[in-house]
Amino acid sequence: MTETRTAVLQPTGRLNMVAAPAFKNLVEETVASGQTRIVVDLGQVSFIDSSGLGALISGLKATRQAGGDLRLADVPEQVMTVLKLTNLDRVLRVHPTVVDASREW
Amino acid sequence: MSGDYVLEGPAVPESLDLVHDLLEQVGREHPDLEPGDLTMFETAVIEVAGNVVEHGRPPGHVSWTFRLSVLPDRLEGELSDSGEEYGGGTWGTTMPSDLLQEDGRGLALATAVLDSLEYERAATANHWTMLRHRS
């Protein structure tokens, strides 16, 4: 039961104004399907902008409203810097790996 | 400014990838640039350009010219767009206090990673000038 509630999403490339709407929809669809614990594996994301951050915040709210949570894993340097500059590292939990992020919800 | 690199086109979301591509080209052609400097400059440029895409008026009918210079001590960029005068008011410098707000961080983020961000309305264009000193 626990495992079926967990989903790992792996966006790739630039999570910017072009890609953010589709990613936001993907999170919403995932939550709607009953998987309310979402790990976002950012290891293949080369760049994030404020639109991408907005999509992550949207996902965080969607999962929490459904009784779950959204966590980040394998966060690249540019993304980590932007998370800190925007103070979003206070609300988006960062884990070294997907395995770490998938433990103890 | 003259600009070592120039990019022209419509101010639409798809053009942002061309801006990214240009910044990657700058990195390849200037291996002496600290990657962190270029990445943070790119972060700012994309936020400023994204702001034009999102708020430029009339929507879908704004074009821009982006110029970038790599100088010994700094990176300079200027984004000029053909839109109506930017009506953002006291834009820019503070992040939303509500951490769960989904938007409103773009120009604040650009401000945070630049040493200078200036906006000027001149003739029929908006000019956004960005400067970051090199490490």
Short characterization:
With 105 residues, chain A is α/β, with parallel strands linked by helices. In chain A, 40% of the residues lie in helices and 23% in strands. In chain A, strand 5 (69-73), helix 3 (77-85) and strand 6 (93-95) form a beta-alpha-beta unit.
**Assembly type of the shown chains?**
heterodimer
Report on the biggest sheet of chain B: 5 strands, antiparallel
Task: Kindly state the number of beta strands of chain B.
Answer: 5
Helix content of chain A: 40-55%
Gap between N and C termini of chain A, in Å? 13 Å
Count of beta strands of chain A: 6
CATH superfamily of chain B: Histidine kinase-like ATPase, C-terminal domain
Poorly predicted ranges of chain B: none
The portion of residues forming beta strands of chain A comes to: 15-25%
Which descriptors apply to this entry?
heterodimer, A: 105 residues, alpha/beta, Transcription Regulator spoIIAA, two-stranded parallel sheet, 6 strands, 23% strand, globular, B: 135 residues, alpha+beta, Heat Shock Protein 90, 5-stranded antiparallel beta sheet, 5 strands, 34% helix, 28% strand
Question: What this model shows, in words?
Answer:
- The complex is a heterodimer of chains A (105) and B (135).
- Chain A is an alpha/beta fold.
- Chain A has a single domain (3-101), classed as Transcription Regulator spoIIAA.
- Chain A has four helices and six strands; from the N terminus they run ββαββαβαβα.
- A four-stranded parallel sheet of chain A has the order 1-3-5-6.
- In chain A, β5, α3 and β6 (93-95) form a beta-alpha-beta unit.
- The model of chain A has no long low-confidence stretch (mean pLDDT 95).
- With 135 residues, chain B is an alpha+beta fold.
- Chain B has a single domain (5-133), classed as Heat Shock Protein 90.
- In chain B, 34% of the residues lie in helices and 28% in strands.
- Chain B has three helices and five strands.
- Chain B has helices spanning 13-29, 35-55, 106-113; strands spanning 5-10, 63-70, 74-81, 116-122, 125-133.
- Chain B has a five-stranded antiparallel sheet with strand order 1-2-3-5-4.
- In chain B, a hairpin with a 2-residue loop joins β4 and β5.
- In chain B, α2 runs antiparallel to α3 (106-113).
- Chain B is globular.
- The A-B interface holds A 14, 16-18, 47, 49-51, 53-55, 57-58, 60-61, 77-78, 81-82, 85-88, 90-91 and B 13-14, 16-17, 20, 36, 39-40, 42-43, 46-47, 50, 53-54, 95, 99-103, 105-106, 108-109, 112-113.
